[in-house]
Structures are given as C-alpha cells and as structure tokens.
Amino acid sequence: MQKIYADHAATTPIHPEVRDTMIDVLTNNFGNPSSIHHFGRQARKQLDESRAQLASTIGASPDELILTSGGTEADNLAIIGFAKAYRDTGTHIITSAVEHHAVLHTCERLEKEGFQVTYLPVDEKGMVSASDLESAITEDTILVSIMHGNNETGTVQPVEELARIANENHVAFHTDAVQTYGHIPIDVTEIGITLLSVSSHKINGPNGAGFLYVKKGTRLTPSFTGGEQERKRRAGTENLAAIAGFAKAAEITHRHFTERAEASQQLTNYFLERLRAEEVEYEINGTEERRLPHIVNVYLPGIQVESFLVQLDFKGIAASSGSACTAGSVEPSHVLEAMFKDRDRALSSVRFSFGTNNTLEEMEYIAREIKNIIQR
User: Fold this and answer.
1) How do residues 214-248 score in pLDDT, each as one tens digit?
2) Catalytic (active-site) positions
3) Considering only the top CATH level, what class is 16-255?
4) A Gene Ontology MF term for this entry (predicted)?
5) CB-based burial of residue 43 (10 Å sphere; 0-12 exposed, 13-18 middle, 19+ buried)?
6) Rounded CA gap, 243 and 65, in Å?
7) Residue ranges of the domains in the chain?
8) Which CATH fold would you assign to the domain 4-12+257-375?
9) Are 33 and 237 in contact (CB under 8 A)?
C-alpha cells in the first residue's frame, strides 16, 4: 500500500542537507555560544551566521531577530511582550477570528489581565476587511495582529493594506507568517511590519526552532528571565543545532523559491482536476485568487470528517481537518465556523497540503480513493 503524506501544513519532513548540518553541529560544534573560549567562539560564529542567513530572507537586520523555540513562542513573545511594554500608552489589541490558537489564546489571556481585544470577522473567503480594521482602531489601540496566510484554508490576507492602515494610525502591526514563510515573498520593510513570527518545521527544517522579527526601536517585555541571550530579550542557551538546521532549510527554500511554489501549485491544480475527473462533488473553502500554493481545503458534502480521515489513513493517505494543534478536539474548525454560517460545513471539510516529496501520480491516487470512500 502506498504511503502518501499530504499534511505539510502541519509539519514537513526534514531535508537531508538540514539533517547533515545538524549532525555536524551536534558532533563538532558543541560549545556554548556565550562562552569566551575557543569552543564558545566557534559556536557564536555558527549562531551569528545562521541569524544573518535567516534575517536576509525577510529583508531584516540580524539584530532584529529573536531566535525562539518556534512559532508559538514567537507569537506569545510578540503579543504579550509588546502589550506589556506599551501598556502605559494603551490597552486595546485588534486581531481576527481566524488566527492560529497561538494568537487567539494569547489574546484571551491578555483579556483576563485587563486588555481589550477586538476580534475582526472574515467573509466567506476568509478575508479580513480593511475597512473593518480601520473602524476598529481607537485612540487606545496599540497593536494589530493579523496572520499572513491561514494554516487551514491557505487564504492570504492583504497584509500590505492592513499594515498600512495600522502604520497610518501609529499602531504596531504583527503578523504570524508561519505558514507563508518560504512559500511567498516577504519583505518586512516593504510591507511595513513591526513584528513577524516564523517557524522552522514548515519548510523542511527541525521542530523546536523559529524566530520573531522585531523592528528596530520596538520595546518588548521578555517572557523568560535568566541570562542575557538574544540581547536580553529571550533568556536561555540557544539551541545551536536546531538554529543551524533552520538556517540551512531557509537557504535551500529560498534558493529554489520559484520552483517550489510552481511545483506546489501544479500539485494543487492537478489534485482538483482529478477530483473533477472522478466526479467528486466538492467546494473550495477560501479563495482561489489569494491562496497559498500548497494548501487546499475542500468541503465534501455528506462526509463525517473524523471517520473520513480514518478511512483515508487506511489507504495510506495522511491529511487533516485543520490545525494539528487542535488534534483530538471534538469541536469543528473555528476558522471555518468564522467563514460560514453552516456549522456542518466545518464537519465535512478536509485540508490537503502538499510538499517537495509529492507527485502527480499521488494526486490521482488520492482523488480516486476519495471517490471510493464517498461511494462506500
């Protein structure tokens, strides 16, 4: 039986060159980057080179990056760290109803601490309205946090316009770019971003590594107390092997940026073409015009998503109903519930996400098995 991994939005297999880089660091570069002896200096050199490589991929300076354990920590540090640092200027935060839980739950935590949070609605394409954002900003607003691309539907938000509105109103703009980094171009200066979160394991890098971009001059209250690593913004000895692996994954991804995007789009287009050829009834959740090339979320009327995913798994196909961070939850996707009034739609939708190891033949197999499962 074939084994097909179509859940790259959850995590990606590590690239062989990334693995080799990490093994080399673990074997030959074990020093603490904060130590002043030869082993420490060698580790510091590796750390600096990795940071510079990562910064170059988003048009940032190396000293604007805080290396983290992943996207969740980066989101928490961005939102809580900024909110606490600027509490004396305002306590109002704006986000959207379709954010990752790393943002939503963080905002809910701040509400319990006296902050006010506005959750902007989205339309049936999953898009945030620029006019809604403009109307929501008050004199007390200090931060807007709108994700760049949605991890469940692949919808890409108009962050350029949203950031412009925030900047014109002297409000900081944070975006969770975990799902878009490595798939569409990002230039923090051109977009006008204050804070940006990224994770390694979405681009064939290791788990447990990420970064937060912080525009120069922006204050943050650290989440951790301890040493003076990361310019006193994130205490703790850096995970050098994971960071080096992350930098290697970023270098590979951006070296083959165009080819990767085109290959992902080809897989997605062919998958939908094969569904039509198999006469499978489906609708796309989200928008076809502004969607990440590697993610497609399809509504399959009449299915029950949990049993459907189990049957796909029996056929060797790995897919999901949404964010891997909500696996095991009996609640339907909060993203789809925000997009559609029909609650049942969220219970009959499946996310497929493709990557470098997938083939057109696999798309044929997946579409054929979807038809067989529905017929049964």
Assistant:
1) 999 999 999 999 999 998 999 999 999 999 999 99
2) 325
3) alpha beta
4) metal ion binding
5) buried
6) 12
7) 4-12+257-375, 16-255
8) Aspartate Aminotransferase, domain 1 (3.90.1150)
9) yes
